[in-house]
Amino acid sequence: MDGTVGDLMRETDISHYRPRTFNFYISAPGYQPLITHLFKKDARYIDSDVVFGVKEELIAEFKKQPAGKTPTGEVSSKPFYVVGYDFTLSK
Predict the structure, then answer these.
(1) In this prediction, what percent of the chain has a pLDDT beyond 70?
(2) Model confidence over 18-55: pLDDT tens digits?
(3) Model's pTM, two decimal places?
(4) Which among 36, 49, 72, 81 could bridge 54 via Cys, Cβ 3.0 to 4.6 Å?
């Protein structure tokens, strides 16, 4: 937070931190690959993203699940999160 960018940030109410993102690379034969990210609903800094990258359609609810059977049928000894989100690929 030094130099001219630091000076600018100190003059705003915007944090210099970004909300945590969960990044995805999705591909399928016959479709264009998709690189994107999601933000956790109610994440810290979601209302003050320094690069203004938060868009409503990229916010998802991550639901914490207890240890046990996962959606893929595996068994997790630790709690985990499940998120429902539809990604769309272009042909």
Answers:
(1) 99
(2) 899 999 999 999 999 999 999 999 999 898 888 888 99
(3) 0.75
(4) 49
C-beta of residue 24 within 8 angstroms of C-beta of residue 87: yes
The pLDDT, as a whole number, for residue 37 is 95
Backbone phi and psi for residue 5, each to the nearest 5 degrees, phi listed first: -65, -45
Rg (CA), the chain: 18
- C-alpha distance from residue 32 to each of 13, 22, 58, 79, 85 (Å): 39, 20, 19, 34, 18
Q: Is 82 left (phi over 0), alpha (psi -120 to 50) or beta?
A: beta
The highest-level CATH class for domain 3-83 is mainly beta
Residue ranges of domains in the chain: 3-83
